[in-house]
Amino acid sequence: EPEVTQTPSHQVTQMGQEVILRCVPISNHLYFYWYRQILGQKVEFLVSFYNNEISEKSEIFDDQFSVERPDGSNFTLKIRSTKLEDSAMYFCASSDRESSYNSPLHFGNGTRLTVT
Amino acid sequence: AQKVTQAQTEISVVEKEDVTLDCVYETRDTTYYLFWYKQPPSGELVFLIRRNSFDEQNEISGRYSWNFQKSTSSFNFTITASQVVDSAVYFCALRRPRGEKLVFGTGTRLLVSP
Fold first, then answer.
1. In three state form, how does the secondary structure of chain A look?
2. I need a labelling partner for A49 at 20 to 30 A (CA). Which of A12, A24, A28, B12 fits?
């Protein structure tokens, strides 16, 4: 069964450094998402991306964050200057929206970002 | 605003017991979409089920069943004859029409002991 792939599985970085989290969505999917989960807390929406542009973003997704689909397969999340509070598990997801808005999101295994 | 409440933070059962996970949601939309996801200890989020607001037929799939009650804004999930492998955090989520984001509840941690 096709799956969403995320790399790396764990990223450790120093405060103020830039990080890029990478994702390969399911190949025929058109809608891409980033979510994050601070340890022990709920899963929070960051951003959705369709047709090479952001379609919705949350208040968490400020100017420090950006997303890109640099080629036909990868979908990246960049954090320009990491803060301690950016430490979390970051999930990439994709959906095909074939059945309108009830299409489930398929999530990757996540990247655990630790900012020291 | 949309909101999902999972009042049960943690449930502990012994294997083979039935367990129901509660989910109550708030939305002003008349059409919306509900989902359950499972997060096992390994951390990934696994899709379990979706339900449209206009489809009130409840469903059974193996050991899993779902009870959607629009009148009480609830979308509860039952595991029959629980197994140790069912131990995970279970998230209920809501999505509005023409909206992108899933709004997740805080999750219910299910511990199934042998």
1. CCCCEEECCEEEECCCCCEEEEEECCCCCCEEEEEEECCCCCEEEEEEEECCEEEEECCCCCCCEEEECCCCCCEEEEECCCCHHHCEEEEEEEECCCCHHHCCCEECCCEEEEEC
2. A12
**Which residue positions in chain A have pLDDT lower than 50?**
99
CB contact under 8 Å between B50 and A102, yes or no, is yes
**pLDDT per residue over B71-98, tens digit each?**
999 999 999 999 999 999 999 999 887 6
Which chain B residues are within 8 Å of A8, Cβ to Cβ?
A: none
Distance from A91 to chain B by nearest Cα, in Å? 8
Interface touch B47/A55, C-beta < 8 Å: no
Chain A neighbors of B47, CB-CB under 8 A: 104-107
